[in-house]
Amino acid sequence: MAIAVSNGVASTIVSTQRSLWQRIFMTIKLRFIKAIVTGAFMIFGLPGIRNTAELPTYTKIYPIRQTLVNRIFIPKSYKTGDSLPLYLDIHGGGFALMSPVVDDPFCSWFANEHKIIVVSLDYPKAPSHKYPSAIEALTDLVNAVLDDEELPFDKKKVAIGGFSAGANLSLALTQQEDIRGRIGGVAAFYPPVDFVTKGPEKMKTRPFGSPPDALENAVSMFDFGYTTVGQDLQDPLLSMAYAERENLPPKLFVVGCEFDMLCREAELFAEKMAQVGTGERTGSDTLWEKNGVRWEKILGELHGFDQMIAFGETRIRVEKRRKEMWHSAAEWLFREVYV
Fold first, then answer.
1. 215 and 303 Cβ atoms separated by less than 8 Å
2. Are 166 and 91 in contact (CB under 8 A)?
3. CA 52, 76, 43 angle in degrees (round to 5)?
4. Is 184 inside a domain boundary?
5. CATH code of the domain covering residue 111
6. In a domain, 20, yes or no
7. For this protein, what is any one GO molecular function term (predicted)?
8. Phi, psi for residue 252 in degrees, rounded to 5
9. 3-state DSSP call for residue 204?
10. Phi and psi torsions of 57, nearest 5°
């Protein structure tokens, strides 16, 4: 829930206290789901189950955040002396679930297919670590990576990106003063960028006849786990819909999924960012570029379609479409950021 509070200048939207029953229910539900997900990762990580071709080159813990294990992917084609582009990846999971392992398929493919160093970053999870804990930790880690002399990357060719909550965090930390200027672009895959508008209103923005959206029954739980009572929901580090263009990197690639309840807010965010400048918009309604901003809508897909477990023909379709999405991001990076 949110209410408007006068601060003497403008109306601020803040989160409000839920009922005791809601707090108990959401806490139990979130921690139960976390336990299930953790157990699943342990099982899928067992020898003989994991796809070893997707494993990182090595893992690394930076002293500034000693509880967080980061996964580093060096292209197999790397040769001593190469200075490669760097891509920093942040996984999704509603700010509360998953680990960097979930992005291994993307990170390994991205690194080897396009000869990019990929560093998959971890962060402290909700509800034990609420906003802005993850942003603070990731800011420390990003600076540590960018100062890491062991990584053979070109400091003029650095981008960051993420999926869902990870996309939100990418857009948040790049607004930090000590990060600005060090990262050339953000690839934000289906990001939540508006904590003010609530789930029922977001569901109304989906096309008529859309299939069920798993986020519908989870988004309020994730919001509860990530934010505290009294939190300003218009804080641009939380809701990028309220961010100023000059506080973000010069290049932005925003991806939305047509049937995702978050698609419209991501599209509005991209449109707002693209308004700054004098450039002409090129492309179509579903794929356009303007003033350093690229928007792409993946038609016929739900939130996180690329990471859903699928079988048979569905798996073949998902594999094809996610590779197309990843290729699109890589093409944009090499054209706009890694130049």
1. yes
2. yes
3. 15
4. yes
5. 3.40.50.1820
6. no
7. hydrolase activity
8. -135, 130
9. coil
10. -65, -40
Q: Distance between CA 114 and CA 150 in Å, rounded?
A: 20
Is residue 31 situated within a structural domain? Answer: no
Tokens of 332: 């944009």
Range of the domain at 258: 54-215+237-337
Note the pLDDT tens digit of each residue in 96-129. Answer: 999 999 999 999 999 999 999 999 999 999 999 9
| Chain centroid to CA 236 | 15
Note the pTM of the prediction, 2 decimals. Answer: 0.94
> Could you tell me the two tokens for 318?
């998902």
Q: Is the dihedral of CA 53, 82, 116, 45 positive or negative?
A: positive
Closest CA to 224 of 20, 2, 23, 13: 23
Residue 199 burial by CB count (10 A; 0-12/13-18/19+): exposed, middle or buried? middle
Per the domain annotation, does 33 fall within a domain?
A: no
CA separation for the pair 210, 117 (Å, rounded) = 38
- What confidence category does residue 308 fall into, taking pLDDT thresholds of 50, 70 and 90? confident
pLDDT digits (tens, 9 = 90+) for 240-284: 999 999 999 999 999 999 999 999 999 999 999 999 999 999 999
Q: Quote the tokens at residue 233.
A: 């929901």
Distance CA 186, CA 175 (A): 11
CA dihedral (23, 28, 29, 30) in degrees, to 10, reads 90
Confidence of residue 9 (pLDDT cuts 50, 70, 90): very low
| Tokens matching residue 22 | 């809601």
Q: What DSSP letter does each residue of 71-111 carry, written as one string? A: EEE--TT--TT--EEEEEEE--STTTS--GGGGHHHHHHHH
Query: Into how many domains does the chain fold?
Result: 1
Average pLDDT of the segment spanning 73-77: 97
